[in-house]
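Many introductory courses stop at the sequence. We go one step further.
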Amino acid sequence: MDTAFYPCRGFYLLLWALFNLLFPVFSDVKKREALSLERGVVKEEDTLTERLSGLGIEGVSGVGSTLPQCVKLTDSEPLALQSEGDVVIGGLFPLHYVAPKDYIQFYLILCSFDHRAFRWMMTMVFAVEEINRNSSLLPGVKLGYRIMDSCDDVHTSLQALLSLVNMNTQSQSLSSCLADSPVSYFATCTCLSDKHMYPSFLRTVPSDFFQVRGLVQLVTFLGWLWVGTIGTTDDYSQYGIQAFSNQFRQQGGCLAFHLTIPTSPTSAEIQEMADTLQSSTARIVVVFATEGQLLDLLLELAQRNVTGIQWVASEAWVTASLLTSARFHPVLEGTLGFSFPAVRIPGFKEFLLNVYPSPKPGMAFVNMFWEELFELDAFEDLRYTNSSFTDVSDVSYNVYKAVYAIAHALHTLLNCDSAGHNKGMCLYLSVVLHAPLAAGSTECTKCPEYYWSDKDKVKCIAGIEEFLSFHDTMGIILVTLTLLGVVMTTIVTAVFYRFRSTPIVKANNSEISFLLLLSLKLCFLCSLLFIGQPSVWTCRLRQAAFGISFVLCLSCLLVKTIVVLLAFRANAPGSRGLKLFGPSQQRILILCTTAPQVCLCAGWLLGAAPFPFKNPNYQIVVECKEPWPPGFYLVLGYIGLLAFICLLLAFLGRKLPDTFNEAKLITFSMLIFLAVWISFIPAYVSSPGKFTVAVEVFAILASSFGLLLCIFVPKCYIILLQPQRNIKKGITRKYLT
């Protein structure tokens, strides 16, 4: 919901959406009296041309009195109701709606003045004045405000927003960045609930998730299971309609049609939508839009005297003054929907009833309202009118809450006591927002966490987060090596599968060889979990994947080493070792040696799982913090134990016949493996920041390449280049399986 676009939802974006991006503005401008407005007073006797010129609009000629006309804007700053203060709060309210698409060059005159939006504006004024009279809230600090008319238009809203950002510079052109892409700021849209994408967005109203659930329950309770929907091109409507449609179908409902109102609908498009509504058999229509967006369609339906449609309205227009217009009674009579509960604000009704026109500068918005209501007759009394301006049962309380929420937040930030409460926030304010720039100061103040001093040591700047990225030179090199290892392992696997019936592949249980190749591929792939920005899942998976993959690899090597030793002892009289250590026993040994590592990793992750952490010791390094450091060293220690056993057994078989002695290959591979990981520990401990991760990835890749090259490359050499050696001669028959 957005004050920039929707006149019935001005309070939503009022402060929470815009304020979090723009304000408070800490001002050194001298305090001024009450309200000041930056344009002249609109007088009743002025001609339309004079009135436009008084608003800074030039080049008006031949303006009709009955139809809305567009005139070009000058570079003058738009109207703004403001009051100076130590802290200035910005607000946007849709006092007018129905503006043309190309508002950057043109402004729509004679558009509707929304009394409710004017009440929301005055709610903000009332809340600020009430806070300034409260000596216990923000003592010694005067709140100010700068309130502008968004005209219920995207371009106007952004132009006003930029004016709020820079009070001295008016935005000249937005066409280059706006183009035709939809711009949406809807305070009830479920899309804004994503705190990762909108971390600073806050609101004083619930999201559309609850409204949609209520609307689905409403229509299904009444037995309306054949309905149509109408929406617009903005996120508020699209997310709302999508959520309603999904939940409605789950409850057994069916959608007859869906109409989308374009941003600037043509007459033909409006007539086509009206034809669909008239011809459809569905008489229940659910609408997520605003009264301004619906106006053209409703005018067409009223002109056709269309009746009998049961409208179900979203909160954006269910309380709109449009519903009370006699012209639309036949079309909209009986409309249902949910609105926000009203809360009585003490003194607010009396405040509204005492709003009067004045020729003084700064009262143009008030005069516009009074002219709309009484034609500038100052003797009229608001007590005797039936206007939505004085109907305080609407949701003005949300504007009131938003202003007070900001006031309490500022009060907390500025209230730094000796007890140390709010220490972090107070330090941030004192260092980042109040602190003077003095390169020759005799005192230094420590920057807040994750902030660093600039090169001149005069102010704190946000630190840059670092991690081993896929886009870094080091990251690219490691990823390239990883992919190279995976490709080489895949090629070796393909060669072994192609020549799986040859003696050199069948020797020493080919099933174990393929399992070893699979585990090597996993060893290469697990290194990718260490590259990129750490997340909850990558932190949990990286060490577990590393530990289990390497243990599986070493378990296969252990089995192959034992098989080699037993095979060359099989010819000894009475030897039954190889028979007792068949394929089934080999699989059981692999399972038994891998299971302890799996249990260790599972217990580690369940008991004290690593998590992403910003380490400010070396710049700001995003890394995986391990709350239980022994877990990593136990995983690494078990890998080292298996590697040592493999090395010991392979060393014992190094002098066996050379015709096909895999023990020598395993010995060389284990020497490389242990050398890599023994040198890894001191390098890992002493490496700073993201280089710690790089060292571990390098160790994983180096040891994996060592195993692949030492064990499988010699075999591939014989298979592909020396096939005459790939025969049974010299290989013990019992060694073949």
